[in-house]
Amino acid sequence: MKLALAQTNPTVGDLVANTDRILECAETAGRAGADLTIFPELAISGYPPLDLIQTAGYLEANEAQLQRIAYQSKSLDTALAVGYCGTAGEEGKAANCVGCIQHGEIVLRQRKILLPTYDVFEEARYFVSGGRPRVWNLAGTRIGFTICEDVWNDKQFWERSRYARDPVEELAAQGIDLLVNMSASPYHMGKRGFRLDMFRATATRHGVSTVLVNQAGGNDQLVFDGSSFALDAGGNLRARADSFREDLVFWSMGSDGDIRGCDWSSSDEDREVEAVYDALVMGTRDYVTKCGFSTAIIGLSGGIDSSLTVALATEALGAANVMGVAMPGPYSSEGSLTDARHTAEALGVRLETIGIGPVFGAFLNQLDPLFRGTEPNVAEENLQARLRGGILMALSNKFDGLVLTTGNKSELAVGYCTLYGDMCGGLAVISDVPKILAYKLAAVANRRNPDAIPTSVLTKPPSAELRPDQKDSDSLPPYEVMDPILRLYIEENLSVSAIADQLGQPVKLVQDIARLVDRNEYKRQQAAPGLRVTSKAFGLGRRIPIAHQFVR
Amino acid sequence: MKLALAQTNPTVGDLVANTDRILECAETAGRAGADLTIFPELAISGYPPLDLIQTAGYLEANEAQLQRIAYQSKSLDTALAVGYCGTAGEEGKAANCVGCIQHGEIVLRQRKILLPTYDVFEEARYFVSGGRPRVWNLAGTRIGFTICEDVWNDKQFWERSRYARDPVEELAAQGIDLLVNMSASPYHMGKRGFRLDMFRATATRHGVSTVLVNQAGGNDQLVFDGSSFALDAGGNLRARADSFREDLVFWSMGSDGDIRGCDWSSSDEDREVEAVYDALVMGTRDYVTKCGFSTAIIGLSGGIDSSLTVALATEALGAANVMGVAMPGPYSSEGSLTDARHTAEALGVRLETIGIGPVFGAFLNQLDPLFRGTEPNVAEENLQARLRGGILMALSNKFDGLVLTTGNKSELAVGYCTLYGDMCGGLAVISDVPKILAYKLAAVANRRNPDAIPTSVLTKPPSAELRPDQKDSDSLPPYEVMDPILRLYIEENLSVSAIADQLGQPVKLVQDIARLVDRNEYKRQQAAPGLRVTSKAFGLGRRIPIAHQFVR
Questions:
Q1: What is the per-residue pLDDT for B482?
Q2: Do A493 and B544 touch (CB under 8 A)?
Q3: Residue contact B55–A552, C-beta within 8 A
Q4: Which of A150, A439, B25, B203 could form a disulfide with A146 if both were Cys (CB 3.0 to 4.6 A apart)?
């Protein structure tokens, strides 16, 4: 049996275009002699559709496209397995379904059984669970279908099982030759290797060939890496699709199939940093283009974060589609402007320079009747950031480019950023990238674009340059100290004392940082959507009240 | 048996303070001779705690406060029923629990059975469901406890049942004299009357006295009305707490109890508009104070929305704690400034006037090298709004008041508002108030503060005043036409054609409005949290992708 793993990149809700692409892939696969072509979870809909599922006509439109696939694939030699938003029972509740199509007929429909409802997932909000899964006999091969989470509950692999049922066991008990998993499994650092380990455990435990087909592409905050693969019954990798792009790979069971992309089976930090870079490039490209834009506008200060963001955007959209804007203010160093010019030139990106001095002066003048006699404070600092935000948005409104924000996760965590200032923009490209990781990504940028980010940017102490001689370290501990604390607080959800213990840091220091994180929730709830690359990003998957008083 | 309905207003996560208040109420109720004092759902935690439930120590801290209540209430004559975040089983998963306390002992713990996971609720994300509920025999009275959603699944009341189980049936089958429901049931227009009807149906169906104790107060976007009550076995109202504030009312079963607040059992538009007004006042007060602020800053343009917002804030915080800021620009009418002054004076609120003209001029001058030769467009319009936002935020940063935004739901729906401009602020007071309702609320404001909002504000055509002679009606249909369309699209989730049919409006018009709603999702995802007063608000309970292409 020859399988085609069709790792498509659907746009949420663009059902006709997603289906067109499915049919294209099916035709290519059919011509190449595939017996079965497998698509990702919710391939017709795109994942995650969120509340669109509950809007009038969404399920009917999914069904219509599934019927169209059946009709239009009639003459193809390949059978198809396609994910779609279906219905369950007479009440027409939604279900996350796979539909199997052969010779123009929908021969099997099966619902997802395990519905993840944690972090970025909220499937219990939308879907009803499936009953006992049936085995499909395709030309003598007994195939069991699972959808994403359905394979994430192996009692032997996990210390604790999250669900009572194990759909893989239910299928294996019926006797299968091939286990198929259709997923929309979002990327975060290290997940590809983890996923492979887990699938290997499943394949070897049940002694069954196992295939994963995972969605590629970015949809809002989520970046799907694809990285589909096929394992034989011994858990050996026999086919692999590329990561962070669409792909179509083939595997004839019993032989070797296409192997693409790099080997990510073992942990290797450099490779994983490259992966984050690729994830951010793809996420940026997809967000910008799926929102209907082709160009991006970025405030380029000559600091590490904005330099990195410009490099990422340039790879995502092409240099001709990126505009950098330097906006020197009264406390900007000459070096920063020089560095900004260097980076723009090295990347081939247009740079405009618009000083904020005169506007800042006019503003302070207007505020003078009220501000006279007060000490300069965060009001004057934030004002500069807000004037810059105003310039970027004016350029966006005039020339129709999407503004990308440049703040990193460490800053966003502790509120070291200005709401309506440097937080202005449609996408927060690196808002899930801790500061230390930003430096590692800058090294990737410089490998791909030799010396685009000059050494001075990488070595100078980070500064917002909003008051004379300001340094981040005036108000924050060094990022080497802060980033590990933030990781344990945000990603691991630990208490202050547990973090202090684990890192050997003073309780007071951890406490101060934790309070900053808590107090700045209001900023994050008005932040632009950010691309998720860690196991816990701000945004969709982390829901913290603003006006709360819990202290851990 | 004498019952005390203790309708408290907890702050999410402020476990010690919430518990202090519980103990105060218990003492008062005990002194008044109550046999049982009943508190809302999650009274120790405050609702909704969201992901705090999953942070280190949250469940343990809830248990500690429950134990404290038991210990410190030992000498009281009243038994207690208290909602808290508990655990279930050995794995320590979270559960939404009631704990019953008598003579210092926790004598019964019961978990919520039905876990709402729709709209603003996501309890399947957090909680495990309870097993068969037990009946508590207190001094000869057989009491059955339910938590909020547990009573919302009566097969006879609803056309369709959402859940397989009916906890009320499970309790009634065991024989009960009293059904208690502890809730955190958020307000929306008409909900109080609906809730009462539903409880009446339950009381009469099972022939059992029924008591609701509902949380009061605002927590972020949700406003809890309280409106607790007691029904006898015939479904007759025997006690009622006030709405939109803490309250403690008593009911001796078999006689009449305290009756407070107004009668909201039948539908009456004027009364419901008053309720929305009260909800917004309470929601504003609680958000501002629970965030640690005491004063508010509001851009007062002399239009209906900002005038209404200032009136609401004044009632919420006191006139001395509200600062209005008039920020006339090149296209502001003299009348607007006069109206703003009138309203500020009538309400006794400080008004500062800071023109944006000079700053706008300086800004255009800086942009001139890039903008020269282009036609004035939305760039110049939005810039004015953003300068105003910058002024308000500068005042906030300098004088520590919370900026309240003034946009209404109709504008937010179609994107007739400026991101980082008039959308700047910590709370969007009327962002769930459609424009037509804003006029009705302004009438309430004028009844409570005679003629605070002058007739000219109520009668002039709405305008953003961002270009010469601009009117909202230049780019939008009249609000009388648009608001009903928006309601069916957003609250009822209908298709374009169904809306056009139902309202007798052209399909093209409905389609255009629907497209505006869809395309402006990116603005709403960066909007300040808004107070929910309709059955479907933007924010927490409505999750729509930004980069989607679904057309209904």
A1: 98
A2: no
A3: yes
A4: A150
Q: Do B377 and A397 touch (CB under 8 A)?
A: yes
Say yes or no: B181 and B81 in one domain. Answer: yes
One domain for residues A425 and A277 = yes
Closest-CA distance of chain A to residue B368, Å: 10
* pLDDT tens-place string over residues A488-528: 999 999 999 999 999 999 999 999 999 999 999 999 999 99
Nearest-by-Cβ selection for A543 from B51, B287, B395? B51
CB contact under 8 A, A55 and B493: yes
Bridge partners (DSSP) of residue A324 are A298, A351
Catalytic residue, chosen from A25, A112, A290, A417, is: A112
Query: For the segment B375-412, what is each residue's pLDDT rounded down to a tens digit?
Result: 999 999 999 999 999 999 999 999 999 999 999 999 99
Say whether residue A90 is in contact with chain B using an 8 A CB cutoff: no
Q: Is A68 left (phi over 0), alpha (psi -120 to 50) or beta?
A: alpha
Q: What gap in Å lies between CA B38 and CA B42, rounded to an integer?
A: 12
Tell me, yes or no, if A523 is annotated catalytic: no
Do A90 and A33 belong together in one domain? yes
- Nearest alpha carbon to residue A188 among A266, A272, A125: A272
Task: Identify the pLDDT of residue B266.
Answer: 81
Q: Is A491 a catalytic residue?
A: no
Domain CATH code at residue B371: 3.40.50.620
Residues A334 and A399 both lie in one domain: yes
Chain B residues in contact with A397 by the CB 8 A cut-off are 377-379, 382-383
**Does one domain contain both A311 and A411?**
yes
Structural domain includes residue B251: yes
Q: Is A417 known to be catalytic?
A: no
pLDDT digit string, tens, across residues A76-92: 999 999 999 999 977 77
Q: Which domain holds residue B42?
A: 2-255
CA A163 – CA B496 distance, rounded (Å): 40
Domain presence at residue A529: no
Angle at A334 between CA A328 and CA A337, to 5 degrees: 55
Quick check: B317 and B295 in contact, CB under 8 A?
A: yes
Q: pLDDT at position A552, please?
A: 86
Task: Encode pLDDT of A165-181 as tens digits.
Answer: 999 999 999 999 999 99
**The CATH number of the domain where B74 resides is what?**
3.60.110.10
CA angle, A227 as apex, A22 and A67 as ends, to 5°? 20
pLDDT digits (tens, 9 = 90+) for A135-160: 999 999 999 999 999 999 999 999 88
Calpha distance A42→A83 (Å, rounded): 4
pLDDT band at A357 (very low <50, low <70, confident <90, very high): very high
Q: Are residues B309 and B409 in the same domain?
A: yes
| Number of domains into which chain B is organized | 2
Q: Is B60 on the interface with A (CB under 8 A)?
A: no
Q: Is residue B288 part of a domain?
A: yes
ipTM for this prediction: 0.96
Give the pLDDT confidence score for residue A503 in this predicted structure.
Answer: 98
What is each CA distance from A388 to A379, A422, A430, B55, B363, in whole angstroms?
14, 7, 19, 37, 11
Cβ neighbourhood burial of A28 (10 Å; 0-12, 13-18, 19+): middle
What does DSSP say about strands B209-214 and B178-183: parallel, antiparallel, or unpaired? Answer: parallel
Q: For residue A519, what are the contacts with CB-CB under 8 A and spacing of at least 6? A: A415
The pTM score is 0.97
Does the CB of A401 have a partner CB in chain B at under 8 Å? no
Query: d(Cα A300, Cα A341) in Å, to the nearest integer?
Result: 9
> Residue B475's pLDDT is what?
87
As a whole number of angstroms, the distance between CA B450 and CA B504 comes to 39
Q: What is the pLDDT of residue B152?
A: 97
Nearest CA in chain A to B285: A547
Choose among B24, B56, B22, B70: nearest CA to B42.
Answer: B22
